[in-house]
Design brief:
With about 525 residues, the protein is α/β, with parallel strands linked by helices. The chain contains 5 helices and 14 strands. The strands form 5 sheets. Strands 4-3-6-1-8 form a 5-stranded antiparallel sheet. Strands 5-2-7 form a 3-stranded antiparallel sheet, with no helix packed on it. The chain has a two-stranded parallel sheet with strand order 9-10.
């Protein structure tokens, strides 16, 4: 399949594009001849489907080669070329020049494995490489750079075109050493507005080394807002084994033009334990992505949670419609700091949460572990056992804003946090359901767990049910039925506006002013 894709790319380059009326008759490259060259010299079987065999190839530099050959030959006797019989006639000069250029073209394009189609107004292009290695950059206009990079410092490679237009840039070669800095990308097109499409495999160039050395794709396509294509399924083919921290940190951040579903095998080569920040904001802002988040997307990632491993991974991916139940099936162990912070923030197209989504996460709460996880998402209900594996003493920010402004949320199916047990923590339930204006029914008995101390902590219940005016029944209670505002009788600012505008609660008139 890899070879077939390269062949089609070559055919595309050779057979499409340039307006014939702008080319002199002497410059026209015989496409029929080029086709024979490809099939006979290179044994590449491609269909010859053009009705007009004299159509010019879309390779301006080939025409320049022919022009230069004509300039050399004009006014000279053929004998001046000595015994080289290839130059017997002017027509032969054109042909030989074409052969040489096409041969060179095919060799270089076969060496390219990752391709960028630029926007139609591209006048220059640049990107950065930090990894040491041997690289080939085909700039798409006949200029090819052969690069030997002996260190891992970040270097910019640039090219200016003779005229603005759409170009297909090919990248080939192999990296041999990576920078160990956690926020240094092996290759970066950060904020490049000249990219319209990507295809092929970046991972074949920046692949996992024999000694296990891993590339990082930190901000590789960060804010490349003009990309209007699918994410290639084989984009990271060649990247295998144990992931490293920050490996896909912000890789596609802000690429709102990506379309279609997330490829199921995008990270298929990875096999190992979670690492800190490994998928930090990897797809954040990719609002054009659609469909279900594949269940096998992270299948090779197995082990205990790591800090911020899925922090904002799908934040503001408003086109996604479903979370697979098996998405985090390999994550097994004690909660880690900010492990799922903001993971699905702004996923307005997702209406359901699989009940076993976090089933493997078992143990004592960690700082910010589910902070703003589903904020502003489209969820309509919360499964009763969603956090069943979380037990033990509260942690700061543990459920801060988890369902903040989920305006479609209607029901809470059970006492979500009932296994929390211990002294309260700062910000533990701040704004957890704030702005869930459609949330109705009763607050389950003992939903916030059992507290072993009634000493109020900073903002522990501030805005928890702010503006949830469709709630009915009694306000939040301890498992024994004691109202929280009676248990934490000195809460004051620690529970400020917890029940703001929750006028449907049966004990609303009894709730202390400081709590509402």
């Amino acid at each position: 399949m890899k070879i077939l894709k390269r062949i089609f790319f070559i055919v595309y380059l050779l057979f499409v594009g340039m307006n014939v009326s702008t080319v002199n008759a002497a410059q026209v490259v015989n496409v029929e001849y080029i086709h024979k060259l490809i099939t006979q010299t290179w044994q590449i079987d491609v269909p010859y489907f053009l009705e007009n065999a004299k159509m010019v190839a879309n390779m301006e530099y080939l025409l320049k080669v022919v022009d230069r050959a004509n300039e050399i030959l004009n006014g000279r006797e053929t004998s001046s070329y000595g015994t080289d019989t290839r130059y017997a006639t002017k027509r032969a000069v054109d042909t030989v020049a074409t052969i040489d250029a096409v041969n060179n073209l095919i060799v270089k394009q076969l060496n390219s494995v990752f391709f960028i189609t630029t926007t139609s107004s591209t006048s220059s292009f640049s990107f950065k490489i930090s990894a040491a290695g041997e690289y080939t950059i085909d700039w798409g206009d006949g200029n090819i750079d052969e690069i030997t990079k002996t260190d891992t410092t970040t270097k910019t490679y640039s090219h200016t075109y003779a005229r603005s237009g759409e170009y297909i840039i090919g990248l080939g070669g192999k990296a041999t050493l990576y920078n160990s800095n956690t926020t240094t990308a092996a290759v970066s097109f950060n904020a490049n507005k000249n990219i319209a499409k990507i295809s092929g495999s970046l991972g074949e160039v920046f692949s996992t080394l024999a000694n296990g050395g891993q590339p990082r794709f930190y901000q590789t396509f960060y804010n490349c807002t003009n990309i209007k294509s699918n994410i290639p399924e084989n984009l990271f083919a060649g990247v295998t084994g144990q992931p490293v921290s920050n490996m896909f940190d912000n890789t596609f951040y802000g690429c709102s033009g990506f379309t279609g579903e997330i490829p199921e095998n995008l990270f298929a080569g990875l096999n190992g334990s979670p690492q800190p920040f490994v998928f930090y904001r990897v797809f954040e802002g990719c609002s054009g992505l659609t469909g279900e988040i594949p269940g096998n997307l992270f299948a090779g990632i197995q082990g205990a949670p790591a800090q911020s491993m899925f922090y904002s991974a799908f934040a503001n991916c408003s086109g996604l419609t479903k979370i697979s139940e098996n998405l985090f099936a390999g994550i097994q162990g004690k909660p880690a700091q900010q492990m799922f912070q903001s993971t699905f923030w702004g996923c307005s197209g997702i209406s359901e949460i699989p009940e076993n989504l976090f089933a493997g996460v078992q143990g004592e709460p960690a700082y910010g572990m589910f902070q703003t996880t589903f904020r502003q998402s489209g969820i309509e209900s919360i499964p009763a056992n969603l956090f069943a594996g979380i037990y033990g003493r509260p942690a700061t920010f543990m459920f801060n804003g988890t369902f903040l402004t989920c305006t479609k949320l209607k029901t809470i199916e059970g006492p979500l946090f009932s296994r929390i047990n211990g002294a309260p923590a700062d910000y533990m339930y701040q704004a957890t359901f704030e702005g869930c204006t459609e949330l109705s029914g009763e607050i389950p008995l003992g939903m916030f767990g059992t507290f072993t101390s009634n000493t109020a902590r900073t903002n522990m219940f501030v805005n928890t049910f702010y503006n949830c005016n469709k709630l009915t029944g009694p306000s939040a209670r301890m498992p024994d039925g004691t109202y929280l505002y009676n248990y934490f009788n000195t809460a004051s600012s620690a529970a400020r506006d917890m029940y703001y505008n929750c006028t449907g609660l049966s004990d609303y008139s009894s709730i202390p002013t400081a709590w509402k």
